[in-house]
From TrEMBL:
Protein's UniProt name: GrpB domain, predicted nucleotidyltransferase, UPF0157 family
Pfam families (alphabetical): GrpB
InterPro entries cross-referenced by the UniProt entry: GrpB/CoaE (IPR007344), NT_sf (IPR043519)
Molecular function terms, GO-annotated: transferase activity
Organism name: Jeotgalicoccus aerolatus
Keywords recorded for this protein, A-Z: Transferase
Domain of life of the native organism: Bacteria
Length: 175
């Protein structure tokens, strides 16, 4: 299993059943380095959706009580597990990444650090679970991803924006 994408690269690979095992391995590492409980670390993103081709990056959702209380010692414990905080600005979220090597050119894993059981946490879990239980939605999502790749040679921000309406449509089913 080869993980990783370069900066602003968008590439989708066939589903790989090893993604689940890799997410569990990293989850265990994170629990050991941070002391977080198992229920606060979830595998999300397309690599967590059965049979879904995806960008070859493992996304993990990590829940904390309060983002305001994320301190240097916690960030150091993520660093011990190989994750560095990115300069990405997202409301209600701190993003960290693990890289292929010390050149920091190829990201292999992301952590989305959010407040546990708050709306963003619940939305991300709902999206994953909904697609895992709904074949039609999975098929639609894959079509959107493939359509982007056929029609654009733009980067990751455009890719995310392209999928946004579908993601919102699914999350709106939660409420």
């Amino acid at each position: 299993m080869k993980l990783g994408l370069g900066r602003n690269e968008v590439r989708i690979v066939d589903y790989n059943s090893d993604w689940k095992a890799e997410s569990e391995r990293v989850k265990k590492d994170l629990m050991e380095s941070t002391g977080l409980e198992e229920n606060r670390i979830e595998h999300i993103g397309s690599t967590a959706i059965k049979a879904m081709p995806a960008k070859p990056i493992i996304d993990l959702l990590v829940g904390v009580d309060n983002l305001e209380s994320v301190d240097k010692p916690l960030l150091q414990s993520f660093k011990k597990a190989g994750f560095l905080r990115l300069k990405v600005e997202r409301p209600g979220e701190i993003v960290l990444a693990k890289f292929e090597d010390d050149s920091y050119q190829v990201k292999t894993h992301y952590i989305h650090l959010v407040e546990y059981q708050k709306p963003l946490w619940k939305n991300l879990i709902f999206f994953r679970d909904y697609l895992n239980s709904n074949e039609y939605a999975r098929h639609r999502y894959l079509n959107i991803k493939e359509e982007f790749l056929r029609s654009n040679s733009l980067g990751i921000r455009e890719y995310t924006d392209y999928k946004e309406a579908f993601v919102k449509e699914i999350i709106d089913k939660r409420t």
